[in-house]
Structures are given as C-alpha cells and as structure tokens.
Design goal:
This protein is mainly alpha-helical and 75 residues long. The chain has 2 domains: 1-32, no CATH class; 34-75, no CATH class. It has helices at residues 8-29, 37-55, 66-71. The termini are far apart.
Length: 75
C-alpha cells in the first residue's frame, strides 16, 4: 500500500518494485548492465509486456500466469 506524497512508504514500495525487476532481469539475462539506454528500454519492455504480464506465475492469481487466469473467464 502506498503512503502519502513524501511519506517513507512511497519510497519503500517503489524500491521493492525496482528490486524485483532488477533481480528478475538479472536472472533472465545474467546481468543488469546494458550497453545503451535503448537496450535497457528494450529489455525493460520485454520483461514487463512479455514475461511479467503474460508468463510469470503470480501469487495473487493462485500461482497462475495472467494468461491462464484470463482464460478462466472465457467460455
């Protein structure tokens, strides 16, 4: 949960998000260092749009991927 602007909880929540992103990109690529800013943007986009939003098993979805979760709503 986020706190008010300037509250310590804002910073802590975002640090957790960036920590997760860095850890998982490092696991996928073997490194978090990029040659160019464009390369970093490309990998961040691929991580969020391809892996996190479609393939990553998420606790809040009962350890299913978002695709598996969405498939449960179509009949």
């Amino acid at each position: 949960m986020f706190g008010r602007t300037g509250d310590a909880y804002d910073n802590a929540a975002m640090e957790t998000v960036w920590s997760t992103i860095k850890r998982e990109i490092a696991w996928m690529r073997g490194s978090i260092y990029f040659a160019t800013r464009d390369e970093a943007k490309l990998h961040l986009f691929e991580y969020i749009e391809v892996f996190y939003n479609r393939q990553r098993h998420q606790t809040r979805l009962g350890h299913r991927t978002p695709v598996e979760h969405a498939a449960g709503f179509t009949a």
